[in-house]
Task: inverse folding
C-alpha cells in the first residue's frame, strides 16, 4: 500500500509503502467498539458518592415517643425518607475499569488505522515541525491541506513550536506516537502521521 508523503506546505516529498498488516486490514466494528468502550470506562471518574444513613451527622435520639401521637413509628431522623436523611442505595466511589486483553487492544488500534486508510482519511507528513510558535501561520498551512478536523501523530518527541501553535486551533489534536489510541483516531476526521510515527508503529507491530 503506497501513499504520497507531503510537507506542511502542501508539496510532495516522495512515496512511502505502508504495512498491509497494520493499515490494510478489513475493519471490524465489534473490535473497535470493544476497545473504545474499554478506553472510556478507564477514563470515567467514578468518584461521585452520597452519604448513607450511617454517615449523616444528626442526632441518634428517637424522634418522638413510640405511642400516643397518632403518627407512624419512627426511630431515627437519619432515615432516607426524611429531609436531610441518608441516601438509600446511592452511588459509591468505585472504578469503572474492566479488563481487555492486550492483543485485542493492539488489534483494535490496527483496525482503527485501517479505517482511516480505507476511507482515504490518512495523510503522511514528512515532518511535524514549525519554525516559530505562530498559530495563524499553522492554520494557513492546514487550510492548504484541507485539515479542519484532524489528529496529528508525531514521533516520540513532539516539536515544541508545532505543539504550542496547534494547541490553540479548534478540532485539532496533537499526540506523540506513544499516545496514539483508537478513540482519538476515530473522533477526528483526518489522521495525520509523520514519517517517524509510521516507522514507530511498524516497529511496534513487527
Result:
Amino acid at each position: 500500500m503506497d501513499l504520497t508523503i507531503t510537507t506542511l506546505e502542501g508539496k510532495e516529498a516522495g512515496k512511502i509503502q505502508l504495512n498491509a498488516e497494520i493499515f490494510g486490514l478489513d475493519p471490524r466494528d465489534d473490535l473497535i467498539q470493544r476497545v473504545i468502550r474499554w478506553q472510556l470506562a478507564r477514563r470515567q471518574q467514578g468518584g461521585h458518592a452520597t452519604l448513607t444513613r450511617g454517615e449523616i451527622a444528626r442526632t441518634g435520639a428517637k424522634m418522638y415517643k413510640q405511642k400516643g401521637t397518632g403518627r407512624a413509628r419512627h426511630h431515627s431522623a437519619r432515615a432516607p425518607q426524611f429531609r436531610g436523611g441518608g441516601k438509600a442505595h446511592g452511588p459509591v466511589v468505585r472504578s469503572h475499569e474492566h479488563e481487555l486483553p492486550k492483543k485485542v487492544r493492539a488489534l483494535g488500534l490496527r483496525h482503527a488505522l485501517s479505517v482511516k486508510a480505507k476511507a482515504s482519511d490518512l495523510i503522511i507528513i514528512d515532518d511535524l515541525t514549525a519554525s516559530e510558535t505562530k498559530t495563524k501561520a499553522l492554520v494557513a498551512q492546514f487550510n492548504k491541506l484541507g485539515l479542519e478536523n484532524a489528529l496529528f501523530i508525531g514521533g516520540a518527541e513532539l516539536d515544541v513550536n508545532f505543539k504550542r501553535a496547534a494547541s490553540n486551533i479548534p478540532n485539532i489534536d496533537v499526540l506523540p506516537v506513544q499516545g496514539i489510541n483508537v478513540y482519538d483516531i476515530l473522533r477526528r476526521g483526518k489522521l495525520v502521521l509523520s514519517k517517524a510515527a509510521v516507522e514507530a508503529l511498524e516497529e511496534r507491530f513487527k
